[in-house]
Specification:
94 residues, 31% helix
């Protein structure tokens, strides 16, 4: 009885081990869209009549940075521009 238990326990332990060279398959990384044209920041800029431009992020090449060109041709970060124009409740300041 005891030897049967040891054999079953040993088989279970060995079955849970991976052999060298039999690495588990790597999962494909999740890819997100690189442009943020539908983002709230881009929509906020266009709603207020400003031009939206996108640039590649040098730190994260798969992500674009959104800029909003405001009067006087000043290019500002679109998310900061939206943050300055909204309150904590999410309502726009008029």
């Amino acid at each position: 009885m005891r030897s049967t238990f040891l054999i079953i326990a040993g088989a279970f332990i060995l079955s849970s081990c991976t052999l060298p060279g039999s690495a588990p398959e790597k999962q494909k990384p999740i890819e997100y869209p690189s442009t943020q044209s539908g983002s709230p920041a881009a929509q906020y800029c266009t709603t207020h009549g400003w031009q939206v431009t996108y640039e590649k992020n040098p730190s994260i090449p798969t992500m674009d940075l959104i800029y909003c060109t405001v009067p006087g041709s000043e290019k500002v970060d679109a998310w900061k521009y939206m943050d300055q124009g909204t309150t904590q409740s999410g309502k726009t300041k008029e």
